[in-house]
Amino acid sequence: MDATERSELVRSQLMYDASRKSAGIAYVLWFFLGWLGGHRFYLGRTGTAVAQLLLSIVGWLTLVFIVGIFMLAGVGIWLLVDAFLIPGMIREHNMKLASDLTGGPVRLEV
Predict the structure, then answer these.
(1) 52 alpha carbon, distance to own chain's centre
(2) Is the model's pLDDT at 8 over the cut of 90?
């Protein structure tokens, strides 16, 4: 491995370390800002994060009309499911990041 390859490898590793997602941060966001889609924004899932945010806001605004209860219940169930999906979302994000940085598929070795 020559100096250029080593430099590129170090640069890729630094980029990966700076951009990878953390399970701890994702779960803190899920716990405190889950109903606003905070954990999904963090994980780059903007579309579903906006859906959670809008469902929560509309649910709270229409709570008086009973329909809001169903929206908030739906968001609550979604958040419960997300608690189990977060590790997979993090793994998927980090594997895609590693693949993008190395220019090819990355194998996960255990």
Answers:
(1) 13
(2) no
CA distance 42 to 50: 12
CA distance 6 to 71: 53
- Which one is predicted more confidently, 36 or 14? 36
Q: How far apart are CA 15 and CA 38, in angstroms?
A: 23
pLDDT at 2 over 70: yes
Residue type, 3: A
Residue among 32, 10, 2 nearest 41 (CA): 32
CA distance 24 to 1: 35
Exposed e or buried b per residue across 16-34, where buried means at least 16 C-beta atoms within 10 angstroms of its C-beta: beeeebeeeebbebbeebb
Per-residue pLDDT tens digits for 28-62: 999 999 999 999 999 999 999 999 999 999 999 99
- Residues 6 or more apart whose Cβ sits within 8 Å of residue 74: 55, 59
